[in-house]
């Protein structure tokens, strides 16, 4: 489940000294929380892209009919509701929205823990080198080999006690 909130706004000043307001979009997914900063125009672009692939709720207006603009807190809440509506109305969250929220490892659909999905995992080819290195190795089985020196080998004895309790 994805949880999205827009608790605040931040101001950003570009190279030319022009300031712009960014919505702080906080995303909670699988116990991990991150945030992305988005402009109002990015929400409009998201809405246009989503409209082409799914039925979307109306994007909240930037303006209040009685005022010149809406209070920013009201606008933040409306945009939060908009994103949450899209998530809750769609069983498969659109990739466009996942990209907008910077979620790369989100699995859609109901394939959470079915046996078919586990079989799919087993059938995949995972042919990439593992970054493991051997820590200890033996040329012969130390349990069967005779000691060449009269001194006790504490490393071998410790490993043998761990592997073959007496």
From TrEMBL:
It is found in: Cytoplasmic vesicle membrane. The lineage of its organism: Eukaryota, Metazoa, Chordata, Craniata, Vertebrata. It comes from the Eukaryota. Belongs to the sorting nexin family. One of its GO terms (biological process) is protein transport. GO terms for cellular component: cytoplasmic vesicle membrane. Keywords: Cytoplasmic vesicle, Lipid-binding, Membrane, Protein transport, Transport. This is Sorting nexin 22. The keyword DNA repair does not apply. Its main location: membrane. It is a peripheral membrane protein. It comes from Gasterosteus aculeatus. It holds the Pfam family PX.
